[in-house]
Amino acid sequence: MAIVEREPLALTTGEPSNGSLEPLGVLARPSTKTGWRSWVSTVDHKKIGIMYGVTALFFFFVAGFEATLIRLQLAQPNGTVLSADLYNQVFTMHGVTMVFLVIMPMAAAFANYLLPLQVGARDVAFPRLNALSFWLFLFGGVFLNTSWVIGGGGPDCGWFCYAPNSGVVFSPTAGVDYYTLGLLITGVASSIGAINLIVTVLNLRAPGMSLFRMPVFTWMQLVVQMLLLFSLPVITVALFLLTFDRLFGANFFNVAQGADPLLWQHLFWIFGHPEVYILILPSFGIVSEVIPVFSRKPIYGYPFMVFSGIAIGFMGWGVWAHHMFASGIGPISVAAFSLATMFIAVPTGVKILNWMATMWGGRIRFTTAMLFAVGLVAMFTIGGLSGVTHSVAPADTQQTDTYYIVAHFHYVLFGGALLGLFSGMYFWWPKAFGHFLDEKLGKAHFWLMIIGFNLTFGPMHILGLQGMSRRIQTYQATDGLTFWNRVATFGVFVIAAGMLLFLYNIGSSYRSWKAAGRPNPGADPWDSRSLEWSIPSPTPEHNFDTIPTVRAADDFWHRKYGEDEHGRAVRIAATEDVVQKGDATGVHLPSPSYYPLVLAAGLPFIGYGLIFNLLLVIPGALLVLWGVYGWAYEPSTEPDDHHGDHGTAAAAHEEETSVG
Ligand code: HEM
Ligand SMILES: [Cu+2]
């Protein structure tokens, strides 16, 4: 029985090759376009993007709750909120969740939703693989968090889980096994996602959309996906080595058997430092879209913006050992990595100056999205500057493993990445959901977040320089650390108030929109520049009625505006005359499928089997096999998946292949 290669043609082949020969065990596809089945079986990049976003927001509240427990424990000397062992588990899971289950998937939400729209495509290159990425991320995240209830507690080794501390001698519970296997599962999700998005950007661009006409957001995402593609294999090797040490008695990090635990540190940070750019560059891309729109000016120095992102992507591979200045790697290495780290501040500085130059002389509208964008520029600059102080190795020897470092990475990851993601939410909410988030509530959310953030993490600079180590469960009253710890804990509740207001805003904006009869915000509510604003809101399932032909960078803007002799923008066309109508006649879309979910569901079982009882691997392996079998045998496209169905499949095929 021949296995036919179908996936790449999903968007192009009109006719299912052998639909009538569906063998036993192939799940029939859902016929409805709405309801839970349409979400569970979706291969639509927009729906997958929204699912990433909702899941990441949920995990943000989980990790936020863990952070609140940490702050309650440290609000007073000799705290008793968390035992020392539980404290180790809580900060480990807080860090791991925020990095792998919040910031990364939230950025993936924007990438999935926006990349095909910004390059002028109908979907990503491999829609079913895209769904698989999402389900692997979700199941990997849930699997990791079940460590709280099955197996003796969460991983307790810190988010970078140094050996030999992470070995079975010092971490005897199953926690670290959840860490290694959970991150292996989410790692597969990110690797597949990276391949999908890279191929989408390089192969599915609309006619005329040359690389240097792509929006900065798309460029930053391309750099991020490349970083993922090359860095994930490194951490994957490290995780496998640790798994073999823990589950099969290998000795990759066992000093007694001649191993060197520094190997873990090198492997972790060769991944770990590019990882911090994987966390921040998506937000850099978001604010590079938001700031020009609300300054009514094109981004300043587009080529510099793009090349500084690429430079960061490359230079990010040459600085990893700045995390190991105190690990005894020797003065030569320390000096080299110190220098390389100072250099990487240059392309980052270029971005900050370009955002400010874009705002300079602009007609700025301080919408909530713009406030969060400006918040990123200000807070990230503070984090960047403390980062430069770390690059001076002698100073870092004082700062490393103290709260000064905790302050630094929260200013770049919360103050940078997270604030940028919120800016994106307020900006693209009308495009994704057909209504605005309330601006008044949004601005209150912003101010609570920025004040709470600085109250929480500002004092940590002082605590760190006063000598407070990170990862300590408590301290003495005589240490003189109580006041600023109290301020930091108070700050967390201000952040929490801001986040509850955000949740309220989501619900109340939807309700008032519904009550007002679902008024449409229009395709281009902010008067924007890129292609996603040239189609209706919310984005129709088929994206574009016809694939646009692009003639310039900011092509959509130039369809609306020309320039007068002073270079000022003058309207040349009404928006409604240059946006598409949302007519799906003859458009051909990939069909939904349950198999990405089925395949992904097998992996957690294999994980539990490796930790607890190998018998559990059997149902896991069967699910994976069923997933692969069904995936191979389900017809790539159901005939009735044509919208408006006036065009012939051949016509649709003809249109699609014109853009590759
Ligand atoms: C919601 C507000 C947040 C609060 C109150 C908070 C608080 C903290 C505190 C107090 C620690 C230090 C624990 C210790 O060393 O004992 C910590 C660690 C950490 N936080 Fe946050 N954090 C927050 C948000 C974030 C965000 C958005 C990220 C983004 C990635 C993040 C990533 C981390 C990481 C990676 C660690 C290191 C954990 C470890 O040492 O293994 N946090 N956080
Ligand atoms: Cu680093």
Overview of the structural elements:
The chain is mainly α. The protein is 61% helix and 2% strand. The chain contains 19 helices and four strands. It has helices spanning 35-40, 45-73, 84-119, 127-145, 175-203, 216-248, 262-295, 302-315, 331-359, 368-391, 393-399, 403-433, 439-465, 482-515, 555-560, 575-578, 595-611, 617-633, 649-657, and strands spanning 561-563, 569-571, 587-588, 642-643. Helix 5 (175-203) runs antiparallel to helix 6, helix 6 (216-248) packs parallel to helix 8 (302-315) and helix 7 runs antiparallel to helix 10. The radius of gyration is 25 Å and the shape is globular. The two termini are 30 Å apart. The site of protoporphyrin IX containing FE (HEM) has 23 residues, from helix 2, helix 3, helix 12 and helix 14.
Summarize the structure.
With 660 residues, this protein is an all-alpha fold. It is built from 19 helices and 4 strands. The chain has 3 domains: 45-261, Cytochrome C Oxidase, Chain A (Up-down Bundle); 262-519, Cytochrome C Oxidase, Chain A (Up-down Bundle); 529-583, no CATH class.
